[in-house]
Amino acid sequence: MLERVSATAKPKKPEPGSRGRKAPKPLRRSQLIMATIAALARKGYASITMADVAEGAGLSHGIVNFHFDSKDELLVETLRFLSDEYRDNWQAEQEKAGQDPASRLAAIIRADFNRIICSPKKLAAWCAFWGEAKSRPTYQKMCGARDETYHRALVDLCQALGGKRGFNAKATAHAIGSMTEGLWMRIMMNSISRQEGEIIALKSLEAFFPTHFPTGHSAAPVKKKKAAEEETKK
Amino acid sequence: MLERVSATAKPKKPEPGSRGRKAPKPLRRSQLIMATIAALARKGYASITMADVAEGAGLSHGIVNFHFDSKDELLVETLRFLSDEYRDNWQAEQEKAGQDPASRLAAIIRADFNRIICSPKKLAAWCAFWGEAKSRPTYQKMCGARDETYHRALVDLCQALGGKRGFNAKATAHAIGSMTEGLWMRIMMNSISRQEGEIIALKSLEAFFPTHFPTGHSAAPVKKKKAAEEETKK
Amino acid sequence: MLERVSATAKPKKPEPGSRGRKAPKPLRRSQLIMATIAALARKGYASITMADVAEGAGLSHGIVNFHFDSKDELLVETLRFLSDEYRDNWQAEQEKAGQDPASRLAAIIRADFNRIICSPKKLAAWCAFWGEAKSRPTYQKMCGARDETYHRALVDLCQALGGKRGFNAKATAHAIGSMTEGLWMRIMMNSISRQEGEIIALKSLEAFFPTHFPTGHSAAPVKKKKAAEEETKK
Amino acid sequence: MLERVSATAKPKKPEPGSRGRKAPKPLRRSQLIMATIAALARKGYASITMADVAEGAGLSHGIVNFHFDSKDELLVETLRFLSDEYRDNWQAEQEKAGQDPASRLAAIIRADFNRIICSPKKLAAWCAFWGEAKSRPTYQKMCGARDETYHRALVDLCQALGGKRGFNAKATAHAIGSMTEGLWMRIMMNSISRQEGEIIALKSLEAFFPTHFPTGHSAAPVKKKKAAEEETKK
DNA sequence: CATGAATGAGTCTTCATTCAT
DNA sequence: AATGAATGAAGACTCATTCAT
């Protein structure tokens, strides 16, 4: 998996090794992937050019093909980065939540609205890939793999929680998973904020599992306004 | 609004007026819009070309610019067609459902999984536009307008149905609307079938409004297998 | 085989159909092949660009890819044209020479120094392809096929003419064929003129077949100086 | 003239001084020239890159510009090497042949089919330069100079040998020289072997000078099969 | 109205050359 | 001396758009 580099690593001052002549290959690759995510958000999948990416990274345009064989490879690696980061994030949060299924479920959902994962730029990038998935088997496979793992985890937790007669864990997992994706799209479209999305998702858990999520207690405290605004730019 | 033409209007036999040397402008336009939807599903937003559209419509490639000033206009008109069709569909279904809020809500949801609206090609086209929405104000506005009207209708119905203390109609409307969109994406990705999506959505209404949707009765009867397969090609 | 178009069809006055908007595809193709031969002579195989070819044909640069899928295809078609033209030329001359083997042999050799075949531009183009043949299987095959047919014809004629003990028709055919190619290279390098090349080749036949080509009678009369100069530009 | 280094100087074991961190400039230069010849044979003039050369020499790709100011200079020096080697070879063989014109002529011809001079790689390199000569004055001059000296030697020897009325030494020299070049091309194209080429060339001398080269005695004995195969790889 | 050849701007990609390390 | 990341010019190819026929 690719070494993570903060998406904010924008070339303000020539930090040692972050730009200019010479930098280790892996660092440049992450830098370019971050620039790709940013460019995807700015220009969209259809209009993104190699020059956009290079410019965004503060490098000359020829460099991108030096680190990635083709535009296609760059995009696939970008999706792979997003996919890995996404999976690592919810799995880590799930672990931290302990053994209680309800806590674990809430943790996974909360993980999806994490500031790192659910940033405007990354949502836009995800959406760009979804838009192309239908006609790009590679993307479809990669997006599918992401959903598959996530879905299985949800099914298991739903199974553990749901008890009523006629309860269908798979269907519930699909409902919850779909809702999360739909909320991401609304966040991306600026219909709702990230925090609102998180609250809506967590509140819905109360509807699906009323006995395990007593009404009105699952939502995380809303962040201070200033911090919320700040992250919009990322 | 554009005159509707069946998406299946593929040039098999030269139906009177559908192709050949002369055809009325509006007919050609719908024909080209249908071809655009099909091409969008086949090649994706990023790769679609004017030639793809023309070829799909069985016409020479110079013709598209004759009926649409530019590629951009063609795409915008295609989105407008989808958007209008979508709105007309759920509004009509809602009307047919009578005055009972629960029936109306179920009708709207059911409308979203209508065979006409929720065909593989149209889902793919929608998804393509969503993917570009972030970086295309025009698309974002058009998609936003669609969601806005729909959302308002959902909020009103939720308000009419939900009564408990602490119930939030807006949040619930967002939850339901998001879920529907998420389910569309899963249908597009072939994770679930259209019928499964519909069932999951309707079942979820039971979770959100347990008193109005008594468990196990809202789902529509699943279609016969043969019919289901047939529509896959559309 | 490609319809032949005179290499001198340079766009001086917009002849009907020869340039500007609209011309039948085959005509454009020959025009572009001629331009390729000219560009090959001017810039060499390594430096020729699609723009050179288009410019030479007096057309916009985008047009070349409209008539040939790729630069590679254009070059292969150019070689095919040269190859076909070459073969047709010597076979036609051979036929015209009647049944006498000596006449036929002389006719074939003379055909190689034909003004049309052995023009500076075409020699340069041939040489360019030979230079790449070693590393381009396609060219090697096409050049090889040309030589093969020609060689076989020479072997047959040598067989018919040579009678001495220890005479080797194959070896003699190789000697004569190689000499012809070598002379082409010298003509191309301006070491000798086309007419000198022809005389040297025909005189050599006297050496190889002294009984059939009595000394001093086989060479064609040298052309007038003025005509000779004129064709240098082609 | 450049210090000769065997074309087989491939980096198998790091011979002392042949590679590694430090090596005297002249050695590196010959090493790179050999690599250029090999790369020319492998990829052709049009496709050869500085990186190919460096890789072939087992060195990093930045190094070539350190030893040669430009790609152009590298290629010119490579041609100069080939040209010098060629000239030195036939002149040395000629000297060794003594004073008899017939022996000297045969020696020169034999020299052209020398294993060192007439290796597959070097033939390919020569051919690559010939292909570009028409459009590269520098190459044309260098190739021309080579031919000029060689041609003069042939003319002198022909003059000494030929006696008949109407004998034209220049024409005969051109015939013989052209044939040799043509045979090289056939060897390069794998139509004939190096040994066959040599025999054909020597046998032809019998045709041109029947009194000095009594039939059937000029050809050198064909090599053993094993040795012949071995040199194919060079 | 319809066709399809022609145009030319824009993009990806390659690669000689430079230069910090 | 040597390395290999970085630069940027140049070229192949695509495709929206125009327009003669």
Description:
4 copies of one chain form a homotetramer. The radius of gyration of chain A is 19 Å and the shape is elongated. The longest helix of chain A has 26 residues, at 71-96. The first copy, chain A, contains 10 helices and no strands. Chain A has helices at residues 25-43, 50-56, 64-67, 71-96, 101-112, 120-133, 137-161, 169-188, 194-208, 225-232. Chain A folds into 2 domains: 16-68, Orthogonal Bundle (Arc Repressor Mutant, subunit A), CATH 1.10.10.60; 78-222, Tetracycline Repressor, domain 2 (Orthogonal Bundle). The first copy, chain A, starts with 24 loop residues before the first helix and ends with a helix. With 234 residues, chain A is mainly alpha-helical. Mean pLDDT of chain A is 86; it is low at 1-19 and 217-229. In chain A, helix 1 (25-43) packs across helix 4 (71-96), helix 5 (101-112) packs antiparallel against helix 9 (194-208) and helix 6 packs across helix 7 (137-161). At the C-D interface, helix 1, helix 6, helix 7, helix 8 and helix 9 of C face helix 1, helix 6, helix 7, helix 8 and helix 9 of D. The structure holds a DNA duplex (21 and 21 nucleotides).
What attributes does this structure have?
DNA-binding, Tetracycline Repressor, domain 2, 234 residues, homotetramer, 10 helices, elongated, mainly alpha
